[in-house]
């Protein structure tokens, strides 16, 4: 059970879980510590039972209809009366509405509310995820009616009070599969102060021109707070007429936009900036691959097709390199991580999983967007107007201590200060990038940091090394960006933007919001200069920030759930096959391994690591065998076999093969003890023989005798374990 105050979770034994359901809010009393040292509780009262749909498969066993929940956290099946199954058939995935709650001596009872289809239907994993996580996936009738009434193109009246940029050759640069384009860029050389520099324009689709505060579209957008991306499907924040039409900067059509117009000095500093509403005309739709090819070879076939735009792209590349230098000067954290993309066939099955490659064009657009976001945060701060900042804080005191201990244990020779700066993390990353365990060290650096949130209380962005940062560049898919646009317009018009009274966060992510609320009020935040309680206006912005942050987490969880489901289904076809991989994390109960060829992660349980006692070293983040000294840490290469796939639990299990035995043999050889199979190494046999003044026996054995020796060693180890006191 997760506590509201953020303290350690309370363990509820199975008998206490009979009368409660996953997501119930309960009042519990701690009665003792369990064998693992966890606080164990007893349910005193069920405070709140949210109305929640349960998704599962309809079964018919022994004349009884029941639904086995897809989410195993529910812990018990739901009984379905004979007349409450509706049109559902045995084995189909259904949505159940509870009619009777569970009791100490009775299962929950429900009725089939919706039939989703067969478990193997294309896209079923997405249908399950959106309901499981409470992701709004259907627009209200009022929202759709309002969207339908919008014009199909920019009208002359819409251009009033806007700067005409239709003659400026702004272009969009996105991925090949992008359907909506919310940002366009243009760059030209310019005199900055007394030196050379660039004028950089970042034009963002003006969603706020069409989505009025408190309107039906606005209410639906706030409820979603973000677009959710799945393989082969997107659940957009806005209706398609806006996201793919009026608010998409499609090529060769006029569009309304908000512009961040910047002067960037030669050293990458933004010398000056201004914001204004404009009307633009996209002169080209580029892909990242195309731009990277042009920048790599200005005389190649790609450049020949876009001759008139090559010079503009070269200017963008120049300002990008200057911004990159400034990034290094700031000491921003810049770790290269591998992101993957799932490629599916028409039936929704995984064809392959490939790494996403980031080229110069990706980085170019990223730096341009970062610059615009920083200017937005500064503009809001200078205007003394409340708004949402994107805040990313440094490590907590606990994480700092863990990281320091880890760096010391690994012999890095560098550490972090009591009040660490991003540059310290980047310096460690640079100093260790050539080490064989670089991946392990960089992973630990990343894990020591906190997640970013939206809040009106500006504490800066640690990872990017900015004093103030916000999100301005994606109002089509992020509600905080839409709010930032509205605030900027209010400041430009010398007025005040008032947050509307919008729906409160749904129950599906209430726990996330509470968890984030405890983060906002945690002692890791920088103390505020004033001790005056926040005004109602600031409280409203805090609530909006919590809502947007919680929905962002919800979208991430739903996306991960779908990806995990697809990967499990994919790996079911590869049961028994062997692959090379690397350890991605070590825990008290085993190691997680990511396969080289497939980028799929699975667990090698500690019981599969060999017939000895493994101890988890928290300082080094590794599992170490007491007898052999074998170590499994992040980055350790292993060879595994796919042994089990649990589709419902989203779990893949591996077992070690060959590679593990070789590692154990090498570790024991280094110790000069015995091999992993229990057969003495040659050096150990010779030392033993010399000590007894006898000739060593041959260590070359037949397979049969080697197997007998292995069984004897396992039996001997088992006898030792029996006599050992259990470790806690």
Summarize the structure.
Helix content is 32%, strand content 25%. By secondary structure, it is of the alpha+beta class.
What features would you highlight for this structure?
five-stranded antiparallel sheet; 5 domains; disordered C terminus; alpha+beta; globular; single chain; OB fold (Dihydrolipoamide Acetyltransferase, E2P); 17 helices; five-stranded mixed sheet; 728 residues
Describe, in plain words, how this protein is organized in 3D.
The structure is a single chain. The strands form nine sheets. This protein has a five-stranded antiparallel beta sheet, covered by helices on one side. A five-stranded mixed beta sheet has the order 8-15-14-11-10, covered by helices on one side. It has a five-stranded mixed barrel with strand order 21-22-23-28-27. Helix 2 (141-148) crosses helix 3. The protein has 728 residues and is α+β, with helices and mostly antiparallel strands. Strand 17 (339-344) and strand 18 form a beta hairpin. The chain folds into five domains: 14-48, no CATH class; 54-119, OB fold (Dihydrolipoamide Acetyltransferase, E2P), CATH 2.40.50.700; 141-393 and 451-523 and 538-558, no CATH class; 397-447, no CATH class; 575-723, OB fold (Dihydrolipoamide Acetyltransferase, E2P), CATH 2.40.50.
């Amino acid at each position: 059970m997760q506590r509201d105050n953020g303290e350690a979770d309370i363990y509820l034994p199975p008998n206490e879980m009979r009368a409660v359901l996953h997501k119930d809010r309960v009042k519990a009393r701690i009665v003792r510590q369990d064998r693992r040292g966890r606080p164990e509780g007893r349910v005193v009262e069920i405070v709140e039972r949210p109305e929640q749909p349960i998704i599962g498969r309809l079964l018919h066993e022994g004349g009884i209809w029941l639904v086995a929940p897809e989410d195993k956290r529910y812990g018990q099946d739901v009984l379905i009366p004979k007349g409450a199954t509706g049109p559902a058939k045995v084995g189909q995935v259904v949505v159940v509405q509870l009619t009777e709650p569970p009791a100490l001596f009775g299962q929950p009872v429900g009725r089939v509310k919706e039939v989703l289809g067969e478990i193997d239907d294309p896209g079923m994993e997405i249908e399950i995820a959106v309901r499981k996580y409470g992701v709004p996936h259907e627009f209200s009738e009022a929202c759709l009616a309002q969207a339908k009434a919008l014009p199909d193109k920019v009208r002359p009246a819409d251009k009033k009070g806007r700067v005409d940029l239709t003659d400026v050759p702004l272009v969009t640069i996105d991925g090949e599969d992008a359907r909506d384009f919310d940002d366009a860029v243009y760059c030209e050389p310019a005199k900055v102060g007394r030196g050379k520099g660039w004028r950089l324009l970042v034009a963002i689709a003006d969603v706020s021109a069409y989505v009025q505060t408190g309107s039906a579209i606005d209410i639906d957008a706030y409820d979603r707070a973000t677009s959710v991306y799945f393989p082969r499907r997107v659940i957009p924040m806005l209706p398609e007429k806006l996201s793919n039409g009026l608010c998409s900067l499609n090529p060769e059509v006029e569009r309304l936009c908000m512009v961040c117009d910047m002067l960037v000095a030669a050293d990458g500093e933004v010398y000056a900036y201004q914001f204004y509403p404009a009307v633009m005309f996209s002169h080209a739709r580029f892909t990242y691959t195309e731009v990277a090819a042009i920048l790599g070879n200005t005389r190649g076939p790609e450049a020949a097709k876009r001759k008139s735009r090559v010079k503009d792209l070269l200017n963008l590349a120049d300002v990008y390199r200057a911004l990159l230098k400034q990034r290094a000067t700031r000491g921003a954290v810049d770790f290269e991580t591998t992101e993957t993309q799932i490629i599916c066939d028409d039936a929704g099955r995984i064809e392959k999983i490939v790494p996403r490659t980031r080229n110069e064009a990706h980085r170019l657009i990223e730096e341009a967007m970062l610059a615009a976001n920083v200017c937005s945060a500064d503009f809001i701060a200078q205007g003394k107007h409340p708004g949402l900042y994107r805040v990313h804080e440094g490590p907590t005191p606990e994480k700092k201590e863990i990281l320091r201990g880890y760096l010391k244990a690994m012999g890095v020779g560098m550490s972090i200060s009591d009040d660490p700066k991003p540059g310290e993390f980047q310096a460690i990353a640079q100093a260790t990038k050539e080490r064989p365990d670089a991946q392990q060290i960089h992973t630990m650096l990343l894990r020591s940091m906190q997640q970013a949130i939206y809040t009106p209380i500006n504490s800066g962005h640690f990872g990017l090394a900015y004093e103030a940062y916000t999100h301005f560049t994606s109002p089509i898919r992020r509600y905080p960006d839409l709010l930032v646009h509205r605030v900027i317009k209010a400041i430009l018009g010398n007025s005040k933007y008032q947050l509307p009274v919008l729906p409160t966060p749904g129950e599906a992510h209430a726990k996330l919001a509470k968890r984030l609320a405890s983060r906002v009020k945690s002692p890791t935040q920088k103390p505020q200069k004033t001790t005056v309680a926040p005004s109602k206006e600031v409280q409203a912005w805090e609530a909006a920030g919590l809502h947007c942050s919680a929905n962002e987490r919800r979208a991430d969880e739903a996306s991960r759930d779908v990806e995990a489901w697809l990967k499990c289904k994919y790996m079911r076809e590869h049961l028994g096959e062997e692959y090379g991989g690397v350890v991605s994390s070590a825990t008290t109960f085993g190691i997680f391994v990511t396969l080289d060829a497939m980028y799929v992660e699975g667990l090698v349980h500690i019981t599969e690591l060999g017939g000895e006692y493994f101890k988890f070293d928290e300082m080094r983040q590794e599992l170490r065998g007491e007898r052999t000294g074998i170590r499994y840490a992040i980055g350790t290469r292993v060879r595994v076999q796919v042994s089990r796939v649990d589709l419902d639990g989203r779990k893949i299990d591996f077992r070690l093969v060959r590679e593990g035995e070789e590692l154990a043999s090498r570790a024991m050889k280094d110790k000069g003890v015995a091999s992993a199979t229990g057969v003495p190494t040659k050096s150990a046999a010779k030392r033993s023989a010399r000590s007894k003044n006898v000739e060593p026996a041959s260590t070359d054995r037949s397979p049969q005798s080697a197997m007998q020796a292995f069984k004897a060693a396992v039996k001997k180890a088992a006898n030792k374990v029996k006599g050992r006191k259990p470790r806690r």
